[in-house]
Amino acid sequence: MKVEILGCSGGMGAGQYTTCYRLNDHTLLDAGTGLGKLNHDEQLKIKHIFLTHSHMDHICFLPLLIDNLFDHLQEPIQVYALPEVIEILRQHIFNWEIWPDFSTLPNEETPVVKFNPITLHQPVVINELTFTAFPVEHIVPTCGYKVTTEQGKSLAFTGDTTFGLDVLQEINQLGKLDVLMMECAFPNRLDNLAKLAKHLTPSLLNKLIHALEHPPKQVWLSHLKPSQTEEIKAELAQLNLQTKLHLLESGELLEV
C-alpha cells in the first residue's frame, strides 16, 4: 500500500498543509489543505474519501475538490464518514449557503458526490484495501480507520484523539499493526489545553504506546502545531519507546 503524505500539519504556514493522505492513488484519508497539492489529472483519480471527523482542517478542501471536478465526473465521488459527520456536512457546508449541495447535483439520481454512513467495526472493501472504522476520543464525533491490504499489511489512523482507556481498548482490539498513525498536537506544558481540546502531547502519547498490548512496528506522527513544532520534537526525542517514531512530512511517499 502506497501512502502519500499530502498534508500532515496541525496548522497553516509556508509549506504547511493540513491532514490529507492518499492511498494507492484512488483513496483519501481526510481532505484538508494537502489535497490542494494534487493537479487536475491526479484529482480525477480520487474515487473514495474516508473522513475521520468534521473539523475544518480535515474537510476544508472536500467542497473545492467536488466543485473542481463537477463537469468531469462519470460517477460520484464516494465519501464515507460517521452518520453524525455527514449530518454536520449537510447542515453546515453543503447547505446552499456555504456551498452547493452536490449530493443533489446535477440531480438526485446522478449526483457528483455520494455520502455513505459508516458503521463502527464494520469493514468496507475498496478494491484491494479494507477499511474498518473504530471510535476515538475527540470533542466532536470522530473515528479512526484500520486499513488492511490483501497481503495482510495493516495501518491504523486514529485521526484526532486524546488518551483514554476507551481509546486504548479500541487500538488494542485492532491486533498487531505494521503502522500506527497518530497525532501529537501540543507540547507537554500545554497538557491542560490538550486534554480540554482532546489532543495528544508527547507525555500522553508515551502513556498510550507503553500501554498497548501489541506495540506497532512503527508510529507515524502528525498534526504538530507549527508554532510549537520544535518544542514537541525535542520532547518526543526524549521518549524511550520500543517502537520506531517517524514524524511525517508533506511530500513523503511511504510504503506499508
Which helices and strands, and how do they pair?
Layout: E1 2-7, E2 20-23, E3 27-29, H1 40-44, E4 48-50, H2 56-59, H3 62-69, E5 77-81, H4 83-92, E6 113-117, E7 124-126, E8 129-135, E9 143-149, E10 154-157, H5 165-173, E11 179-183, H6 191-197, H7 202-211, E12 218-222, H8 229-237, E13 244-247, E14 253-255
In short:
Helix content is 24%, strand content 25%. It is built from 8 helices and 14 strands. Strands 6-5-4-3-2-1-14 form a 7-stranded mixed sheet. A 7-stranded mixed sheet has the order 7-8-9-10-11-12-13.
Q: How does this model look, in words?
A:
This protein is an alpha/beta fold and 256 residues long. It has a single domain (2-255), classed as Ribonuclease Z/Hydroxyacylglutathione hydrolase-like (Metallo-beta-lactamase, Chain A, 4-Layer Sandwich), CATH 3.60.15. Helix content is 24%, strand content 25%. The chain has helices spanning 40-44, 56-59, 62-69, 83-92, 165-173, 191-197, 202-211, 229-237, and strands at residues 2-7, 20-23, 27-29, 48-50, 77-81, 113-117, 124-126, 129-135, 143-149, 154-157, 179-183, 218-222, 244-247, 253-255. The protein has a 7-stranded mixed sheet with strand order 6-5-4-3-2-1-14. It has a 7-stranded mixed sheet with strand order 7-8-9-10-11-12-13. A hairpin with a 3-residue loop joins strand 2 and strand 3. It is globular. The relative contact order is 0.15. The mean pLDDT is 97.
